[in-house]
């Protein structure tokens, strides 16, 4: 697997991500991986020392990671948030809206297709974890 | 009705281009069918037994004549000259070529229509009361709430890969014409302290484990509406089961953890998401509601109707409902002719209905969950002319809510999931009871047929329900009695061993004989069943 696709300006974090259990049991880890069934809120007391959260997508159909990402961003987490696993190119725009800014798909992603997908929608109906202003806000200020 | 602004147009146009790109990648072999499947499903494109089926969204079942004409155009140009109106108030086309699908979506976009989220494990088309805005018994028009949900749920980034599909219905009358409590979320607009809000029911549904949704919150004001929906969905997305497709609907989650625990989880989540400024301002509600303002009714109209033609009089009594405006009525157009396929209409018939809407109904039509069409606002004085035009087009069947007004899924004639055919059973029952006088003697009798346990034909909610199963390689039909999808919601009970295709028709007839024998004054079939219980029916059917 190559380097993750990153939408961040900072340098990639080089510490390997540890499991949630391992993370909660040790005080110095700065990178953690959460499985799709694990509760992202368990990380909230520790956000100030985390530089990377990797969220696992064991199957593209398993959408729990989208909620995990939003929960972390809503709590103010500003570090790298990576989607890893069965991540399809057509899902990345939705994941970006949920706050993911780093991607490690198991199968390679066609960068031209991805660029077109990310540029496709000028407007979004609902507020999410990205800076997009929802359409109702554009309508009414 | 709602009109797109620049933002709506921009989003739907982007979707057309996105799907065109996805189809092109598939046709070029850049993605496999396995990878393409979730993409096409998110856009209502199914691979069925013989061809692709495309399901087009009709948000809350409301259409204007221009849109209805477009549906006819698509039937002619891309299908075999007809379309099938569904229990989700949508329309589907059964003979679509994959390469045509992007052009169909582009055609639809010209009339502010799309196929967004008509399938897939996401929030589906929002359904509503087909009499919205016209019913005498409604508190308000529920459709602004439905349109708010349509926008909020379209391409919702967090809820596009839910454990399973998710269906929401909104009503605003005590009489439930939308099977509200048999949805994943059912909403009823209610009033409290002079303000409108919604009562929230969560965890209803049919399928192999039918459930009536419990009340989760008795009043959510507009100011919290979408935040509360967000919380309801987030709890489901996080905790809904993903280990077993048959246990993945929200009804299983609510049932397994209990309504109280689910409510606690939603309240806790709501406290978080309410901080996020997810709720549009009142001005947005007002903007949308203005599109649903009452049409400019004429005043001083007479309520008199010339009942001279006896066939017209029968249709009038059966298919025309009371309207809230004096001198107006609601016309139901039955898509259930004897021997026909429930919900099917030819392109020519679709055009006729569109023209009638334009000429007589303030340019509005509705699709009903019972697979019929409604002209919501017609002058009573125009009823004879409308009836004549419907009769000329083969659309004047006077059987609304009678035994031949059958809901049926496509069944094994089309569907790759089905175990048995539904359409031939519907046709045989309609033929057995083809005498309209006999049907009217039986009165309101909602008969619903599903060709498999997934219950797309709503058999659990039929006064009489029929479930097709596969029994050692032959089609077998189970009979259920006592279901209802209305405000007196209940789930049907299986009578006993199943029947052959002809045997089920006989069994239905025997059940109706018991009703005629046992009924008390003013009782419908359902009322008699509820009073006398299963025993006399069982005895007649199996005795």
Automatic annotation (TrEMBL), chain A:
InterPro entries, sorted: UCP030820 (IPR008318)
Originating organism: Sphingomonas canadensis
Record-given protein name: DUF934 domain-containing protein
TrEMBL record, chain B:
EC numbers: 1.8.7.1
Protein name: Nitrite/sulfite reductase
InterPro entries, A to Z: NIR_SIR_4Fe-4S, NiRdtase/SiRdtase_haem-b_fer, Nit/Sulf_reduc_fer-like_dom_sf, NO2/SO3_Rdtase_4Fe4S_dom, NO2/SO3_Rdtase_4Fe4S_sf
The Nitrite/sulphite reductase 4Fe-4S domain, residue ranges: 119-271, 404-541
Species for this entry: Sphingomonas canadensis
Top-rank lineage group of the source organism: Bacteria
UniProt domain Nitrite/Sulfite reductase ferredoxin-like: residue ranges: 52-109, 341-392
Upper lineage: Bacteria, Pseudomonadati, Pseudomonadota, Alphaproteobacteria, Sphingomonadales
Keywords: 4Fe-4S, Heme, Iron, Iron-sulfur, Metal-binding, Oxidoreductase
Chain ranges passing through the membrane: none
First-level EC class: oxidoreductase
Pfam families: NIR_SIR, NIR_SIR_ferr
Record-level Gene Ontology MF annotations: sulfite reductase (ferredoxin) activity
């Amino acid at each position: 697997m190559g380097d993750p696709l990153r939408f961040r300006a900072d340098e990639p974090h080089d510490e390997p991500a540890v499991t949630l259990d391992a993370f909660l049991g040790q005080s110095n880890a700065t990178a953690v991986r959460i499985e799709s069934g694990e509760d992202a809120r368990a990380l909230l007391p520790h956000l100030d020392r985390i530089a990377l959260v990797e969220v696992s997508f064991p199957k593209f159909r398993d959408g729990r990671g989208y909620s995990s990402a939003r929960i972390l961003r809503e709590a103010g987490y500003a570090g790298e948030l990576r989607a890893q696993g069965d991540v399809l190119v057509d899902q990345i725009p939705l994941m970006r809206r949920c706050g993911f800014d780093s991607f490690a798909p198991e199968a390679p992603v066609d960068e031209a297709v991805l660029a077109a997908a990310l540029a496709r929608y000028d407007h979004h109906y609902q507020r999410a974890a990205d800076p997009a202003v929802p359409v109702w806000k554009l309508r009414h200020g | 009705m709602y009109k797109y602004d620049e933002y709506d147009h921009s989003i739907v146009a982007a979707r057309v281009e996105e799907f065109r790109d996805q189809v092109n990648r598939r046709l070029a072999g850049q993605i496999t069918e396995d990878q393409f499947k979730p993409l096409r499903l998110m856009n209502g494109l199914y691979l069925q037994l013989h061809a692709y089926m495309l399901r087009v969204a009709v948000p809350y079942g409301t259409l204007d004549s221009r849109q209805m004409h477009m549906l006819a155009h698509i039937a002619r140009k891309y299908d075999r000259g007809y379309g099938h109106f569904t229990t989700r108030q949508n329309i589907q086309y059964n003979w679509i070529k994959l390469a045509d699908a992007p052009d169909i979506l582009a055609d639809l976009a010209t009339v502010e229509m799309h196929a967004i989220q008509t399938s897939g494990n996401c929030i589906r088309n929002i359904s509503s009361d087909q009499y919205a805005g016209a019913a005498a018994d409604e508190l308000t028009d529920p459709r602004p709430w439905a349109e708010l949900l349509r926008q909020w749920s379209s391409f919702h980034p967090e809820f596009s890969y839910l454990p399973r599909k998710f269906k929401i219905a909104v009503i605003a009358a005590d009489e439930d014409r939308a099977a509200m409590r048999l949805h994943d979320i059912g909403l009823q607009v209610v009033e409290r302290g002079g303000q409108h809000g919604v009562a929230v029911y969560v965890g209803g549904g049919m399928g192999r484990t039918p459930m009536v949704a419990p009340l989760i919150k008795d009043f959510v004001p507009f100011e919290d509406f979408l935040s509360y929906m967000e919380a309801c969905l987030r709890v489901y997305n996080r905790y809904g089961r993903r280990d077993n497709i048959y246990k993945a609907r929200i009804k299983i989650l609510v049932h397994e953890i209990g309504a109280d625990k689910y409510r606690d989880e939603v309240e806790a989540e709501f406290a978080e998401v309410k901080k996020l400024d997810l709720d549009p301002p009142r001005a947005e509600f007002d903007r949308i509601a203005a599109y649903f303002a009452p049409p400019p009714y004429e005043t001083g109209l007479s309520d008199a109707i010339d009942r001279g033609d006896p066939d017209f009089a029968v249709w009038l009594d059966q298919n025309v409902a009371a309207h809230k405006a004096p001198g107006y009525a609601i016309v139901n157009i039955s898509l259930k002719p004897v021997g026909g396929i429930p919900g099917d209409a030819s392109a020519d018939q679709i055009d006729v209905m569109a023209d009638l809407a334009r000429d007589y109904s303030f340019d509005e039509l509705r699709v009903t969950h019972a697979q019929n069409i409604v002209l919501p606002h017609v002058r009573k004085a125009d009823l004879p002319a409308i009836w004549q035009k419907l009769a000329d087009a083969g659309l004047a069947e006077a059987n609304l809510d009678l035994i031949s007004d059958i809901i049926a899924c496509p069944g094994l004639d089309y569907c790759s999931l089905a175990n048995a055919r539904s359409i031939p059973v519907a046709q045989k029952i309609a033929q057995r009871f083809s005498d309209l006088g006999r049907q009217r003697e039986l009165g309101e009798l909602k008969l619903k047929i599903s060709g498999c346990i997934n219950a797309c034909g709503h058999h659990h909610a039929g006064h009489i329900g029929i479930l097709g199963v596969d029994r050692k390689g032959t089609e077998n039909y189970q009979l259920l009695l006592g279901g209802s999808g209305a405000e007196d919601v209940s789930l049907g009970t299986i009578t006993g061993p199943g029947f052959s295709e002809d045997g089920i028709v006989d069994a239905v007839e025997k059940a109706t004989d018991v009703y005629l024998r046992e009924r008390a004054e003013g009782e419908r079939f359902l009322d008699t069943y509820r009073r006398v219980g299963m025993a006399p029916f069982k005895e007649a059917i199996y005795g």
